[in-house]
Amino acid sequence: MTGNIETAATRTALKALDTTQITTAYLSQAGRAGIFNFRAGNYSAQITADTEEGLYIKANAVAASAGVWVRSFDGLPMVNWWGALPSNGAAANDTAFNAAISLIQQQTNIQRRALGIPPGHYIVSDLRVENTGLQFTLIGSGRFATALYRPASAPAALIRVKGEGISFTDMSIQQGSFTSADASIGILVKKDYGPVNPPTADSDFSLSRVRITGFATGVEHWGRGLKAEDCDFNACGWGVVHEWPSVGDYMQDDSPVKRDETGFRYFQYDSIRGHSNLFGLFRNDGTNAGKINGINASGIDMDIGRCLWQGVLRQGVISNFTVTQTPVPAFRLADGSENYIIEGGTIQGDPIAERVPTYLIELTGNHDSGVFRDILGRYCESHGIYHDGSGTATDMVIDGLDFSEVCKEVSGANPIRFNGANHTGYIDNVTLDTVSPLTGVIRGTSSSNAMKVGRVAHLRAPTPPLDPSSLGIRMDNDTFSSAPTNGNFATFKDHDNAIRGTIEASGASSIGIWMNRGLDVAIRVGSGNPEGTQMAGRGSLYIDLGAGVNLYMKSTTSGNTGWKLFAREA
Hints:
Helices cover 5% and strands 42% of the residues. It has 570 residues and is mainly β. The relative contact order is 0.04.
């Protein structure tokens, strides 16, 4: 006895104490050490639930319905109280972790629904968070202090989360290795969906300051509600894979949160690092990929980056991102992507490290109302932004893109290329910086395209805004009367933002300054007599720089006739 407290070296010794004489004892067993008080009352349910005796220990001579030994503690319960130790094998730690998680999930005091993990490297193979309680948190001691570790790849999840409102924080979840074809998963967030008593699709799962390494899939998430902040996904196949159950697996009524148009939402990523993943960071290309929406990702940093997002991106915003040393497109956006914004980022290959993508951004299938804004693209073999023509992109906006040393290996490649028919949208404020000239910054391949182009500039090698072979894609109708392929233009607007004048470069020998666009009054420069060739309004001037300098004035209000010689070089 130490003072008035009896010391018990093991749980067996604690159970054997005479509770009529001793009501407080110190358990000194390694890992499980702590103060226990004998409390009278019916604790039968607690003894049944606490299978590994972390908080409740039955006395040998007393029925659980009459009283038990109860651990006294402040703060977090710690998983080692149930027998988890860095020195254990996987089976022993699985038993300890699963017993502790199960009990803590069932605590009625919500502040006690959290379980701590001391520093250490814990070998585990199959951990479960069942759907038995809400708002459970597993808390490590730091992503480089606490690790849950599976030494070799297995075709299963290391941690299966079935509950709702579950969060993990401050730990590493690791596997020794994986192959590109295996089915290993770090965390599988998936309820038991099915036709009998279908559950809600809510998971509201969150990760904070968690490092996931070495799995074919870091997190596979089924359902609604996933948040990750300040997390690392390293040396995995994919960092996060989104999946969605069939509506019939869970829907019990037609409430807004269960409809296809409104219910499949809320995925938030903030300050995420992806390093040296085999395929990429986020993937959404499952059977129901088109139903998933409401993606918000910001502060994404990928080195040896590969693909930041593959699959459908619907009602999503991806901003403030960096993808460097990537050998594949940073975005592969698939059919059904719509109402998305990708802005404020850098996509960069690395020719020295021989990591150069074919494209920087690749689009396939049908797209609607997609926005690419304020992006720097550097080093790619072929096109920068490329639509393969397998569908139609409508109401697209490409604004503020800077391309540097792109289209390096494929002859005739363009920084922006839209194949196929009927694409619509607007391209503006594009800058190209290359040592060697390209055939054009922008190109379309079908005459039925309706993409309009605004400001396009080159910094070094002279490259026309539109490829001469471009079909359909044209310069802004408010600025040009035809589809110029050489030079740039400027637009002059009044305080109401109405266009009052433009400068046009419509070919190698024709330059026009439109003084009043509404009346087609212009000053144009070219070679030869303008009669029958130059469109302009009444009062326009034309300077012929052919054999001599001749000045013509337009006397009629429309068409290309009515030019009168006004002055001739002396």
